[in-house]
Structures are given as structure tokens and as C-alpha cells.
Amino acid sequence: LLSYGNLLQPLGSVLEKAVNASSLINMDETPVTVLDLPTSQVSKTHFMLVRVGSGSRGKAVLFTFLPERKNETLARYFGASEAWYMTDGLKGYTHIYDILMPLWRHYPVI
What count of other Cβ atoms lies within 10 Å of the Cβ of residue 64? Predict the structure, then answer.
């Protein structure tokens, strides 16, 4: 499985460049439960950061696995672009108020 990740790395780099070239980047993180091998009795909560870049050339979507969502971790995904960012109200995003658009709303799925 890891060898597939290595094969897909060039595609990930192209998608990251496309997202960072966008004028608007929507970002959100969602919890992902991961089975902690080899014990297989314990699972841990990690996060999937989803970034959608929108610009004159269309949209690009990038999924990034995060071990946690601390401020320092989230900060790595800002500043590589001159885009506006739209996120939810997570405190980890408060350091980017100068490039942050109004907040997304989370609505329950019906």
C-alpha cells in the first residue's frame, strides 16, 4: 500500500500547486478513526484536511492526513498562496484573520 503512495506523490504535488495557485481556498478538517496496528485493539482519532482551490482554471481538491490539528500543524497549510481562505471557526485558524473570509457553517446532514 505504501508503494502506491510513492507512485501518487507526483500527482499530489501537481494538486498542491493547483490549490495554492487558486484565488480562494476552502479548508476543513474532519476526524478519521485509525486502527493502531499491531495491537488492533486500540484506535486513534486523526484528521483529514480537505482543501478545495477555486480559480480561473477551475477547481482542485486535495486531501491531507493530519496526526492532529494543533495550531502549528494547521499553520503549515497557510501562506504558500496569496489566496483568500474560507474555513470553519476552529481556533487553529485565528492566526490568519487578515486572509480569512467569513466562516463556513456546519449543518447537520439529514
Answer: 15
pLDDT in tens, 49-79: 999 998 777 889 999 998 888 877 877 777 6
- Virtual torsion, Cα 93, 33, 67, 71, nearest 10 deg: 20
Residue 74 backbone class (left: φ over 0; alpha: ψ -120 to 50; beta: rest)? alpha
Query: Helices in the chain by DSSP H: which ranges?
Result: 2-20, 71-75
Please give the model's pTM, rounded to 2 decimal places: 0.73
Cβ atoms of residues 86 and 106 within 8 Å: no
Decide if 55 contacts 24 (C-beta within 8 A): yes
Query: Chunked in runs of 10, what are the mean pLDDT values of the chain (110 residues)?
Result: 79 89 86 74 83 85 88 75 74 61 53
